[in-house]
Amino acid sequence: MTQTPSQILDRVWVLEMVRVTEAAAIAAAKLVGRGNEKEADSAAVEAMRDALNKLPFNGTVVIGEGERDEAPMLYIGEKVGAGEGPDIDIALDPLEGTTLTAKASPNALAVLAIAEKGNLLNAPDVYMDKLAIGPGYEEGLVDLDFGPAENVRRFAAAKGVKPEEVMVCVLDRPRHEALIRELREVGCGIKLIPDGDVAGVMAVSDPDETNVDMYMGSGGAPEGVLAAAALRCIGGQIQGRLIFRNEDEKERARRVGITDFNRKYSLTELAAGDVIFAATGVTDGALLEGVKRKPGGWFTTESLVMRASSGTVRYVYGEHRRKAL
Question: Domains, the chain, ranges and CATH?
């Protein structure tokens, strides 16, 4: 699903976004396995913020670390950039997988997406029910309203296989007990992941490589927007519906202009227009290799960067030889 190239998101921004995620990943990698989630996250946040503030644009964080009273940096609504140039909306997670980093577990990433102003859903920091499949299937094949078992059966029929041959990725959380039970009853496989649902959703885009056909379950709404931005570039479908547990969470939504609390968001309602998505591995994972420390105090990184308008996916290997990084 390619789009007309943006007049604002010039191709130069592709590499600039990689530099931003590299900075966050290197900062977080220095704390891999140290058991301190907050310290690792804080290091990634500060590094990403510093990198963004060097760029010549007027950036607004629409998906960030939380609201201003909860997050001292990279909060929703924060202005970043050098204060000149185009108006850009930014969705980011400086460290997707704080627990993974603290435990030196696989699949921790530094991720961000940018788009022209108004093209990324300004989602509150609440849960979102998500359903995603890869490219090549008709729109509407699966739907949050159908239920897990029906979605597996419909997907299996379209793929030309039995439900037993479908693999569904689900976050391993107590809140998913009923979902997992229903999926077990329909007979499909379930890949349970401890964290990292951006990477979990992205896995559906290449089932031959990842062995993941579908993604189901609830996770953070900010991660849902980031995952949608990635799928805009590499192909696939996603639906999301915000989950509100109390009136305070509904008030958060009202503050960012959301009043329909039952709305079901499609891919292009989560991330529209031309989008650039970048990710750098912090720890080794199925998607990217993690940061490696080399003798002499330098580092190597592996990143990917994608653009919706061109449909291009680039893998970028970096060597960072300055000790100051």
Answer: 12-120+275-320 (3.30.540.10), 127-270 (3.40.190.90)
